[in-house]
Amino acid sequence: MSASSFADVAYDEAVQRTRDLVPVLRERAERSAKERIVLPETLDAFHRSGVLRALQPKRYGGMELDFTSVFDIGFEMGRGCASTSWTLVNLMIHHWMLALYDDKAQEDIWGDNPDAGIASGVIPSQGQATPVDGGYEVSGYWNFSSGVHVSDWNMLATTVRDGDKVVDLRLVLLHKSQYEVIDDWQVIGMEATGSMSVKAEKVFVPEHRALSMYQLGGGDVAPGTKVNTSPLYKVALSMLSGHVIGSAIAGNAQGALEMTIDSIKQRSAVTTGAKLRDIQAVQMRIGKAGAKIDAGVNIIRHDMLEGQDIARAGGVPDQERKLRSKRNVSFGAGLFREAVDEVFTLAGANAIYHRYPIQRMFRDTYAGSSHILFSPDINYSTWGLLALGGVVNNPTL
């Protein structure tokens, strides 16, 4: 085990440690975007704080906090830099996901390095896993592997077939020596996530490093829950995966509001000399932005709290509750986007300059909220179909 253990760090302390890093995240955000990665000194600071291990089991020196900690920590990170938050909450949730794997897989990774970064590629159709003696032969090409540049491992989704029939979807763990990183991350937003593509060809993965995605629906069905018995590891990720990364765009919206308020306090209108803060239209936009952010945060955190409560009671959310949660996170993401639109308008012509952070925050908002987990077309209509008496077939729920 690593010399560093954070098993005695409480929830509020973990959030405060993150909050303390917000000023330096803001200072580094533009440089990080240009480099297209989370900067090494930033990653080091978060490792030293221990917050990346907020959801890791205590037996490996993690904090093993409530599931909502990933949102609250991600929100604070997002106030400083959306890309950094997006990347690091991915690392955090992958610690939690590793705790669901067979105990041997946990030891393979955390036994050598409890701080190990784990990236992911979560679209099963992009990978194929062929059953072989003792495990699977894996090939694929996965894009959007956030944090791959700071990770030693990757958690890659694959499809398992029997002939033409899909029989399973497996998240396989590959060491960085087993895949190639394709530097194709040339994008207009969320630049510092370094979400490059990865390619693997005929790699052997032992059975214990392959977790069925059908076991992410909550309860004690995943093999890791036999050794990690806390209700934390019985939360239904299938209900809340969008809520995890939603923390980054929520925090980004809050950061944009805070920076806009600070700017307006110091500015006067060019044409009239009036203080901007005294203009009612400006006050209205600030008020609407703040309300939209609070509403989005509250609806997302409510879902996460409910998911925790269900797990603590020994239950598993039903299909309607899971789909309602997905509907809600799409609505929340839309509110964060609208809030940033409000404050971007207040920046006026200055918003077009690269030296003004609001243009990057605007781009990050639209890039982040375009993730399929926030798709209103999918999430509104799917819940609507069920509510209207239709049948939703999704085995990964």
Automatic annotation (TrEMBL):
Cite the Acyl-CoA dehydrogenase C-terminal domain residue spans from the record.
244-375
Q: Which UniProt keywords apply?
A: Oxidoreductase
* Every Acyl-CoA dehydrogenase/oxidase N-terminal domain range: 27-108
Please tell me whether the keyword Amino-acid biosynthesis is annotated for this protein.
no
Any Pfam family: Acyl-CoA_dh_N
GO cellular component, alphabetical, reads: cytoplasm
Q: Which residues form the signal peptide?
A: none
**Gene Ontology MF annotations:** acyl-CoA dehydrogenase activity; flavin adenine dinucleotide binding; oxidoreductase activity, acting on paired donors, with incorporation or reduction of molecular oxygen, reduced flavin or flavoprotein as one donor, and incorporation of one atom of oxygen
BP terms from Gene Ontology? fatty acid beta-oxidation using acyl-CoA dehydrogenase
The answer to whether the entry has keyword Electron transport is: no
Family statement: Belongs to the HpaH/HsaA monooxygenase family.
In its UniProt entry, what is this protein called?
Answer: Acyl-CoA dehydrogenase
